[in-house]
Amino acid sequence: MKIINQQQIMDSFDADSITSLLKSGFIAYSRQQVQQPPVQHFLFKQAAGDCCIKSAWLEGDEQFVVKVSAGFYRNPAQGLASNQGLLMAFSALTGEPQALLLDEGWLTALRTALAGRIAAELCAPADIPAIGIVGCGMQARLQLQQLKPLTPCRDVWLWGRSEAALQAFRHDAETEGFRVHTTRDAAALAAHCRLIVTTTPSREPILQAADIQPGTHITAIGADAHGKQELATDLVARADLLLVDALSQCADYGEIATAYRQGLLTSKPIVEFGAALAQGGTLRSSPQQITIADLTGLAIQDVQIVKGILARL
Amino acid sequence: MKIINQQQIMDSFDADSITSLLKSGFIAYSRQQVQQPPVQHFLFKQAAGDCCIKSAWLEGDEQFVVKVSAGFYRNPAQGLASNQGLLMAFSALTGEPQALLLDEGWLTALRTALAGRIAAELCAPADIPAIGIVGCGMQARLQLQQLKPLTPCRDVWLWGRSEAALQAFRHDAETEGFRVHTTRDAAALAAHCRLIVTTTPSREPILQAADIQPGTHITAIGADAHGKQELATDLVARADLLLVDALSQCADYGEIATAYRQGLLTSKPIVEFGAALAQGGTLRSSPQQITIADLTGLAIQDVQIVKGILARL
C-alpha cells in the first residue's frame, strides 16, 4: 500500500482536472451509478470532537474510497489542527488496500471549495459587483481563492464575529489581490454582494431574507448536520431556485432542511448538481433570480479527488 | 501513525487477554455504552466481492476503531487471499490517526473464533462426546482450535461439500491432536456431536431440526448478511434458548432472522452475549436443552481486539 503524505498530495493537486472529475462524479451520483452507504457519525462530547466516515464506489471504477474525517475543536489550544483524518483507496477488483492519503483534512477542504466553484458556475449572475464571504476560517479562504478564475470581480466583503479574525483574513485576501471590506453586519455584506458564500458552523441564521438583493446567488457550505443553519428559513423559502449536492442529505440535515420540513419548498425547483451538470449550461434563467446552493458533502467527491491525486503521483 | 504488519499482530496476540477484553466489550455493548453506527456495505458483483466498514467507540476510551473488511471470492485463483482489509485506531481525544493494522482479515477471523469460544462457555453442555464443525475453511479451523481449552473432548466430526477440502481439514485437525471423522452427511455429524459450530456462507439450511439431539449447543457463525442461513428455520424455532451477539443485527440478518420475522420466537428467551456475561455463570439450565448462538459480528469486538494487540506491541 502506497502511503502518501500531505506535501505529496498538495504537489499532485490540479484544480482544473479535479473540478472536471468532481463534475462527472456529481453526474454519476444523480444517475444512481454510485454505491454510497449512509455516513457513519461519532460524537465525542467531552473532547469537543466529532468524526464521520464516508465511503463510495463509482460502479465500474477499479477502486473505491473510504474517508475518516474528524473535527476536534479544542485541538488548536494544543498546537494541533482541528481537522484530522485520512483517505484510503482499495481495489474494487480484489479488495486490496492500495493507497493511504494522510491529508489531515486538506482534500476534504479542497473538494468542498471546488464544489463551491461549480455551484457559482451554475448559478452566479453575470454581473458581480462584489463577492461576499461569511466566516473567516480555512474554508472561507479556499472558497475565495477558487472563485478567482470564475469572475474578474476583485471586490470582496468579509463577515466575521471577531475583529482579529477579520483582519487576518483581510490580510490574506489582499495578498491574493482583492480589495477588501470587512464588516460584522451581515446585512451590509448582502447589500453590496451578488455572489455570497457562507462557511460557518452556525446554528442560528446569519443572513435574513430582507437582506438579500434580487439577482444574488448564495452558496451555503456550513450546514452539514442536524441543527446547523446559516440562512433564515424565509430566505431559503424566498429563493427562486435551489441547487443541492444530494437531495436526500440536504432535505435531511442541510441548509434547506428546515424549510423543506416545514413544507415551504413544495413548489420550488430543487435541482441536484448532477442533474444540472448533465443538462449543461447555467441554471439561472434571469438576472433577477435569487438562487441558493446547499452543499452537505458527498463521498463521491472524495472518490473523485483521490482519483485525481493518484493519477498525477 | 504506527503501521503494524500481520507478523507483528500475530506476535502480539494473546487469546486469553483478548477473550477477556471481548467479554467486557460485549457487556458494554449491551449496556449501550458503545457508539457503533450502522455497518456500511458494498457489493462488487462482477468481481464477486463485498466489503463492509465497521466502526465503534467504547465511550470513555481514548481511542476508536474503524475496520474495512473485504471478501473477494475469486482472489485465490490469482494467488491472493479472499479476505482483505485493515483496521485503524484513532485518538478519541484529538482525532489523530494512531495505528494502522494491516491484518489481512486475520483479526476479524480471530475475534470471531474467540466469540465462538465465549458462546461455548455460556451454552455448551458439560458432557461433549464429540465436537462437530460444519465447513472446511479458515474459520472452521480457528473455531476448533479455540474450543480446545474449553473441553477435554478430542473427537471431532467434520462436514464439508468437497472431499478434498475435508481431507485437508482432517490432516490439520489430526495435527492439533483430534481424532477425526469426516462426513458429507450433516445429519450423521449431528447424531454424534453435542457441540456444533457452523462456519459456511450457505444460503440454504445445512442442519435440520430432526437431526439435532437433545442437549446440543450450536454456534452459528456463517449468517452475517441477508439471505445467508445455515440452520433450518424450524431448528431455530425448536431451540430452548437463543444467544445473540446483538439482537438488532441478528433479528435483521443473522441466523435467527427468518424465524424471528415469521414470529416463531415470540415466546423464546433471546439473550445478548453482554447480558449473559454481565449476569455470570452458564445460560444452560438443563442438560437436555437445545441452545443456539447466533454471531453476526460487532464492531466493538474489533475495538477490543485492537486494544489487546496495541497493549502488547
UniProtKB/TrEMBL annotation, chains A, B:
Cited InterPro entries: NAD(P)-bd_dom_sf, ODC_Mu_crystall, ODC_N
Coiled-coil boundaries: none
Example of a GO cellular component annotation carried by this entry: cytoplasm
Domain of life: Bacteria
UniProt protein name: Ornithine cyclodeaminase family protein
Native species: Serratia inhibens
